[in-house]
Specification:
The complex is a heterodimer of chains A (350) and B (275). Chain A has 350 residues and is of the alpha+beta class. Chain A contains 8 helices and 20 strands. The two termini of chain A are 38 Å apart. Classes of the chains: A alpha+beta (350), B mainly alpha (275). Bound molecules: adenosine-5'-triphosphate and magnesium ion. Magnesium ion binds next to helix 1 of chain A.
Chain lengths: 350, 275
Amino acid sequence: MAEIELKRISKGFLGGTVAALREMDLKIPDGAFTAVLGPSGCGKTTLLRIIAGLEQPDAGEVLIGGRVANHVPPPERNVAMVFQNYALYPHKRVFENIAIGLRLRRYPKEEIRAKVNEVSRILRIEDLMERYPKQLSGGQQQRVALARALVRKPEVFLLDEPLSNLDAQVRDSTRTELRKLFRELNATVLYVTHDQTEAMMMSDFLVVMDAGAIRQAGDPIHIYKEPGHRFVAEFIGTHRINTVAGRLENGRFKSTDGAIVLDTMIRKTGDVLMEIRPEHIAHGSREDITLEGETLLVEPMGPTNLVSVRVGENELKMFLSSPPRVGEPMRLSFSSRKAYFFEAQSGLRL
Amino acid sequence: MKVKKILFYLLIGSIFLYCLFPFAWTLQTALKPAEEVFRLPVSYFPETVSLQNLGDVFTRRPFGRYVLNSLIAGGAATVLTVWAASILAFRLRAMDLRRAMRIQRWFLAGAILPPALLVIPVFIVMKQLALVNNYLSLILSYTALNLPFALWMLHAAFRKLPRELDEAAVLDGFSSSAILYRIILPLSRPSLAVTAVLVFIFCWNEFILSLTLMPSQAMYTVPVGIALLSGASVYEIPWGEINAAVALTTIPIILVIAALQRWIIEGLTSGAVKG
Ligand SMILES: Nc1ncnc2c1ncn2[C@@H]1O[C@H](COP(=O)(O)OP(=O)(O)OP(=O)(O)O)[C@@H](O)[C@H]1O
Ligand SMILES: [Mg+2]
């Protein structure tokens, strides 16, 4: 099948003034459902386009299934792509949009019909076959675009935010179905999204990008638990991680305002950031680091509440099902093992 | 509100009259019998409608032949121009915008020369190629003259289509000529139609090249044929027949526009991409 490997890929635009990818190294295991996660403009689409062969890298090698693919023309790479803006053929009906790739590859008529019917059933667009793309809603167009990619059963799928236009409900069910579908196909999938919950839920392999570089790649749970870079820690997680600036000296962290002090195993001296996830902060003094603070804000979130607490000059967020009133004093605690330390300058994990 | 509306219609009406008056005059002169054309005081509507002039144009002169010549030269030149411009515009679209615009400007520079200036060199070349009195001489020169304009129109139209459309097509297995003929051209039909109509009108009305490159009467195009319509003596100008011929020449243009009307109006391109 098709493992994908990128070796020191660089790509610039506008005569090199915009660096979309910077010496990127990446190895995606064969058959992995890979989510590519990153903020807008970080180079996700460019990455997919280079793998598809729609864009030539300025430097570096693309390997698909162990073969250097730099000079393999796109139709021979056996990849299908769902574009961020769908790119359906406006003058062809939905059926034709989906079938055209098979037609051009000279599949027999009945087989084309059967395959198209199958994917359109999975994506629930059977009733739309006779319409033109402009007669569809955004979400329906998106599903047609997905069907066009799926019907060919290539070795590699490149999906550029394929669910971004679906409403929450359809999105959830389509997500689950897609996941099942791709597992059956055993294809290598690159799935671009900037929704990190989606990325965590769906992927076997997660790539976190920032400014044209990979910050971290690997098992999503591992990335969540052990972020290698400040950017990753802040980008991944249901709620933004708490950040406390301070200084590390002789294995002891002290926040800039002096309100938070804790001992660590890290033998390093310098300015650092201590980060702790809201879900790792508890009410009361159950854990080893106990702090006193004052409730600033309570944001209800259904079954739970996001509570902001002021500790010294810092604002820490945590989840509480029965929150205190605003202004009340609060005692909270966390385990020092759950705290991450990053070098202030480089953002690298210590 | 109402006053504004009335003023608007008055304005539109007067522009309409202003533009159509020459045409109406031509038409009514064409329909007058010869004696009435020169009679004073002028009559604004023919007292007796006569189809004499219209008939004479075809029976006493080879006007049918002129129309055929014009249709062949103009039609072939239009098809050739639009086809060549499509291919060029498709190539330009694949380039980055700045480079494409530079190339396009060079083409436009060629279009600045007035055709009258080209008559002699073109005639010499055609003479050497033994193409004088041959449709090809007009077809080739009309194509060359119209190509910059057609390229400009089509390049602009093609650029409006999202690049992802071609890219999706590449991945689907379309060859690059199939992308042009099966995706880009069908989606650019309105612009193709407008371009074709304007190029055809240019060819249909072109006079000076046609006059020089097609000197024998059997090869006259319509404008040349009309200009050289002469009476029994140099003192007689056959106004009735001239006007009949002019009125008749507008018919093919109207037919071409009517035929392409649907394409010009329909906007199939919407819905190609999100938003
Ligand atoms: N054709 C182009 N010309 C110039 N700059 C480009 C071009 N394509 C992309 N870029 C730039 O390269 C960078 C990466 O773009 P890319 O489209 O890959 O981002 P992305 O991660 O897909 O963003 P989004 O989530 O908004 O889709 C951006 O800064 C973008 O402006
Ligand atoms: Mg993108």
